[in-house]
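User: Please predict structures.

Assistant: First:
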Amino acid sequence: MIFKIAWRNIWRNKRRSIIILTSIAIGLGFTMLYDCIVRGSVQQMLDNAINSHTSHLQINNAGFNSNKIITNNISHSDSIINKVASLPFIKYYSPRVLNFGMITSAANTSGITLVGIEPEKERNVTIIHKSLTKGTYFSTNPNEILIGEKLAEKLEVDLNDKLVLVSSATDGSVSSEMFRVVGIFKTNSSEFDKAYVYVPIKTAQKMLLLGDNISQIAAITDKPENINTYKSILQSKLDYHFEIFTYQELLPLLIYYVQIANDSMLVMYIIIGTAVLFGIINTLLMSVFERVHEFGVLMSIGMRNGKVFRMVIEEAFILSFVGTIIGFCLGLIGYYLLSIYGLDLSVFSESLSAFGMSTILYPKLDLGVIINSIFIIPITAILGAIYPALKAIKLQPTEAMRYV
């Protein structure tokens, strides 16, 4: 009965109720959609960094991450690789050789990071093979090289052009090798494309006098959310001569961006909720003052204060709940459309690539968005209804019945 009375009371003043419902629905719908876009954009930045090079886990010799010198390498790498590959949560892995060097064309010279890889294993760990804009992935030729589009522009080279790569070997000598460009890639990070080049791992080992030693093992896990547990398990399998880094440790700034984005959107929901709070207080106070006589009659025939209080609270809940459902549906429609077509920001491609962002952004709908969207508005509306409800139950029946 209380719910029915509350529902009828809402529609006594249709114009006022429709205005507040519309305000809640539009405000929540756009906030939810914006939340999805922000979460999607920062998640894309993180995924791009992981998929381009970082991976979920990196296993190095102790101290290599802070001082990437070629002499600090992993010896007896086969036994370490076998231990990593035997773990059930490791989906893919890729041994790498890493070193700094200089690359020279007929037109220019640039500093680079040399990455020696096993092509077939690396393609399961990173997306470099999918990022090729020209040429092909590695074949059987040992002196093939993949370079980024920005680096190719700087060196003024194209497919099949020759490059000379110079780097320091393990014995302290300067080693050089000639390579032929077989592929040019473009990732979402222009800085990455300027700095990284890929060659077959055997060629890199021979050039740097490494033998069978490697610099790093990159791994992809089955459940990234369990990455810290996986790190502990993997560390227990290896001795203190090795260090393991998760993508969270390797990309702290991006992880911070993700957290900041989530926290900032919570603030946005609170701002919307605060606006709803004052709207509900204003609407229900007006409703209470318009119905003073009615409240007096209800109290005089025996309706207890608790039921009067509950009736006002339910009016606020109904308004906020209906507005939330409509707004949530509007947000879902916007999310669905953007998840198919994306938000094209190609006009800002140069700026976005500097931050490692894609030119087409796709929204992300997760549990945090759903919880914020569904619960914050009704909760704030109920809190806002407390003051008008207290006003209603403080009315004296005899005075309220004479109120004009």
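Second:
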Amino acid sequence: KVTLRTNWLFYGSHSIFFLGIDKGFYEEEGIDLVVKQGNGSSNAVRLVANGDSDFAYGSAITMLNLAAQGAPVVAVATIDAKGTDAVLINPDSGLTTFKDLEGQAVLTTAGAGVNTLFPVAARNAGADPDKIKLTNVAESALVTSYLQGLAPAMLGGMDDKPAEIKANGGKQPIILNYADFGVDQPGYAIVARKEMVEKNPDLVQRFVRATIKAVKAAEADPDASIRALINWSGSVEDQKEQAREVLDVTLSILYSANNKDKVVGLNVPADWESALAILKEYKELKTDQPASAFYTNQFVGG
């Protein structure tokens, strides 16, 4: 029995793992997979670090930050190869740029991975992040608070939050993707404990192999992936369109520009090096370790 902890409440991107269960990919590898919901990438990574969960699907930059500070974890595959962290702005607010957000409140959730590089993207865009007030609300209240107009903008993944906003009656938000403002980073990674990688590499190999098969199966039949999510998670049928929109974003960013051979799951060295450099320069991360200390490609063939 293996436990995978997701970064958040179940949404479309997580359907890949449920499709892998339905297709028997994990069972073929001798794995009885249990997928559990998370409450932020930081929490998901910490639950792997302390042995509560075997693997996590979480923000790569958040994992890198925690690992550099001593968390005994490592990325064994990257699923979302590009960052989806973004500022989502209500189009009725009249605001369109990072600079416009100065003097405004922006909603977010404590511990969310999207918070980490917000100041970097803001500075790169010519705005002063100290003049933008990040306001924490509960995850369950984030989109509701945004739709109620408590702030003109919110932080969130462009993979899931725009779809959730529209599903709840809001307009398509203006999206300021950090990746468009010099923030090159892997998006979401599969995280494992270093001890497991060292002592039970066969299990990690089998898990990664099954997951990569699931990713490819979702590419081939995304509707089947969403059906698996609905069947396993208890999601209701009317959430299908929203979940599919989210999954489509993930499937569109499986390869970064630096992944020349388009290897699914590859931890791309240049992307991890960029992420580490950003954290060291802008977040004052202290580490003498190279970027390669925080990921391994021994399980994805790269």
